[in-house]
Give the backbone structure.
Amino acid sequence: MLTLLFKAHSGLRYLVLLMGLVALAYFVYGFATRQPVDKKVRIFGSSFAGLLDTQILLGLVLVGAGWPFRPMLWGHLTLMILAAVLAHVLLVINRKRPQPGFLLPLIAVGGALLLIVGGILAIGRGVMSSTSLGG
């Protein structure tokens, strides 16, 4: 069962990264061309944050269920949680602004993606690598 959870956690990273890149591209385009903000900003931001939350939940379930915990996982966990906090905080601030824009979502997703890449590298894995850590 733990191996299945690990494979789900490991595989979901590709969806998180893909959604992050799609959202980032949309936000960069909207910001650069000064497009009016539409509901896609909220959809892309929320989709990215939701996938990231699911990824973190799977990781925490793995740790709680007894997946071998190695010291390098502290850096991984810390960076992933910081990525989620950054994304959520900036996306919520943008949503509550009288005139939401593209800049805060761009910083939220771009910054979160950088933290995610750091978190993946912290456990000695490549971003697109299919090698497994333990188990």
Remarks:
- The CA atoms of residues 5 and 113 lie 22 Å apart.
- Residues 2-122 form one domain.
- Helices lie at 2-33, 39-64, 73-96, 103-122.
